[in-house]
Amino acid sequence: MPSAVQNDVTDRTLALAQEIAARHAIKPVFEPQDALVDVGLTSLDLVNLMLAIEAEFDIMIPPACLNPKNFYSVDAISRMVESVRAGVH
Q1: What is the pLDDT of residue 25?
Q2: Number of continuous H segments (helices) and E segments (strands) in the chain
Q3: Nearest to 40 by CA among 48, 29, 55, 52
Q4: Angstrom distance (rounded) from CA 33 to CA 37
Q5: How far apart, in whole angstroms, are the C-alpha atoms of residue 6 and residue 1?
Q6: At what angle do helices 74-85 and 43-57 cross, to 10 degrees?
Q7: According to the model, what pLDDT value does residue 89 have?
Q8: Nearest to 10 by CA among 79, 85, 83
Q9: pLDDT confidence of residue 77
Q10: Angular region, 22: left φ>0, alpha ψ -120 to 50, beta rest
Q11: For residues 48 and 89, what is the distance between their CA atoms, to the nearest angstrom?
Q12: What local confidence, expressed as pLDDT, does residue 12 receive?
């Protein structure tokens, strides 16, 4: 069962992703487990999302975490954010 902190990270990440998707994506409203490329986010959108995540959570995503697996879905991004915040990456 996800913790309250994980739910907060997921909710905030989903809001950021949906804000970016609302600009032009095929499916601007989606679930945390949906593949971001399937809802219409482009590679530029994912870069913008990464920058928004860093600003929202006041973190610097290390280069080792910048891979497609960590940006597959909001759930994947949330797990990555939690590991970065915990100092595990």
Answers
A1: 65
A2: 3, 0
A3: 29
A4: 12
A5: 10
A6: 40
A7: 67
A8: 79
A9: 98
A10: alpha
A11: 21
A12: 96
Give burial (CB, 10 Å; 0-12/13-18/19+) of 50.
middle
Q: Which helix (H) or strand (E) holds 76?
A: helix 74-85
pTM of the model: 0.88
pLDDT given at position 5: 67
| Dist. CA 48–CA 17, nearest whole Å | 9
How many C-beta atoms surround the C-beta of residue 57 within 10 A?
17
Question: By C-alpha distance, which of 26, 6, 23 is closest to 74?
Answer: 6
- Averages of pLDDT over each 10 residues, the chain, 89 residues: 76 95 81 94 94 97 95 97 90
Q: Please name which of 41, 46, 42 lies closest in space to residue 21, comparing C-alpha atoms.
A: 41
